[in-house]
Amino acid sequence: MKVRLLLDSLGCFFTNGSFCDPIRRAGGEVVSFMPMLPLQTRGSANLRNHRKIAVFDHRAAAIGGRNLAVEYMGPTPLKRRFRDFGAVIEGPAVSLLDEIFLADWAYASGQPIARLHDALPVGVPAAVGPSELQIVASGPDVAGDPLYEGILSLVQQAERSVWIVTPYYIPDEVLQRSLMVQARAGIDIRLVVPARSNHPITDLARRHYLRELQQAGVRVLFYGPGMNHAKAILVDESAGLWGSANMDLRSLFVNFEVAAVTYSPGDTARLATWMRDVFAHCKPMPSTARPRFFPTLGEELSRLLAPLL
Q1: Among 98, 104, 231, 248, which one carries the catalytic annotation?
Q2: Phi, psi angles (nearest 5°) of residue 164
């Protein structure tokens, strides 16, 4: 069996060396995407492969927000385990995820993409269910910003509701204003973020944006206790999106990301059920006056750093 493990160099800085040697000794291949060390022109700590894709026998694939780490999954329950969201899919969409993975692998490994394609099964996997899925990749290897533009289109075309679950919220001005305009128009806009995430500086940077949303009529909900790492959007309970991208500048404009979009009633109904369960573990963000000088200074400094977070 061929096993390939593609690791983001920065995200796996402490585990992409000898930690993975057992996989290599067993015959697996492990490659680091844009290595940070030694310094080289191809490497960049700014360009991160944030995609989470697992493909099995070219017939099934998993896509979502989970990393391969004990905080996200494991054989025994863990009190500090993150909540997350993903799906296992079969059918033609798997071929698209296969292509995305192989393109990333070819770039990171230096292996010819043609040789990798030669090893693929002939033909596209047959449909196995009624779901209609769209796979969207974004990043420096994709023209334009299709994932960001897709999210913006979903938000701006909503007629009844926009529900967003994200671990980090540092938007650009257009997305922020679009949510505010829709809320003022009477659309049910809900944004779920962790009460406390695993990155305190992003919690500080988000405060200004969350206050603006709340003042515009958006229901800002704090999830807790625990960390919710899921990234999902549901619009009018008829279109759903989930994947690897956070609602922040880095995910939307810099990172290599991937997401799935569904318009199938069964899938959106399951996503709506999951989101309502998330809402049940949330509390509304407290309405507070503008913070005093030092907290405000911290927020402004964090916002200046936001594009780097």
Answers
A1: 231
A2: -125, 130
